[in-house]
Design a protein that fits this description.
By secondary structure, the protein is mainly beta. The protein has 3 helices and 11 strands; from the N terminus they run H-H-E-E-E-E-E-E-H-E-E-E-E-E. The chain has an 11-stranded antiparallel β-sheet, covered by helices on one side. Helix 2 crosses helix 3. The radius of gyration is 17 Å and the shape is globular.
């Protein structure tokens, strides 16, 4: 009888709290991600391997394009506010000149933070390559610049499938998760 009143169904997407609890409990993950960055003047595509570690630094390694393959970005801090670029023994520290979480170097870290600690403003479903994915939409309209992120996740495994990141209404990054484990 309760199911009739509240509509028990496998088609109901997991609530934001369920997704947040899953990612908060995730100690580590490895992923392969294709990142398309479009800041208006040109679009660039990157292929990266990303090692997420909740208790330590994350590590992003560029695998394509070939000219920068091997460049590594070490991301530290609870919200990826600081990161270090490493290549051939040299290290370059970055700070808050760019909008945190909105560059190819720290977008995955920012997205993982949102999945772990953020409160989505909208939750729904949408088909992504044959998967009825859960969509989570995050906004930070109360600060400038206004940021929006939408991420599509697999409802069975909670693996991210795709994400779009917007700054002041303009899509700047699209992330395609080719592997997540």
């Amino acid at each position: 009888m309760l199911c009739m009143a509240v509509g028990c169904s496998r088609d109901v997407p997991p609530a934001g709290e369920t997704v947040r609890a899953h990612f908060d409990g995730l100690a580590a993950a490895e992923m392969q991600v294709k990142i398309l960055s479009d800041f208006g003047e040109s679009a660039l595509e990157y292929q990266v391997d990303y090692e997420y570690n909740k208790e330590d630094n994350d590590l992003l390694t560029v695998t394509a394009p070939a000219g920068i393959a091997g460049v590594q970005v070490e991301i530290s801090g609870a919200h990826a506010d600081a990161f270090t670029l490493r290549y051939a023994g040299a290290a370059l520290q970055f700070d808050a000149d760019a909008v945190p979480g909105m560059t190819p170097a720290d977008a995955i870290a920012g997205l993982m933070y949102d999945l772990r600690a953020g409160e989505p403003t909208e939750v729904g479903t949408e088909d992504v390559e044959g998967v009825k994915a859960v969509t989570l939409h995050y906004e930070t309209a109360d600060r400038q610049p206004a940021l929006e992120k939408t991420v599509w996740i697999d409802p069975e495994t909670f693996a991210p499938l795709y994400a779009e990141l917007y700054c002041d209404g303009q899509r700047q990054l699209a992330l395609t998760f080719q592997q997540f484990q």
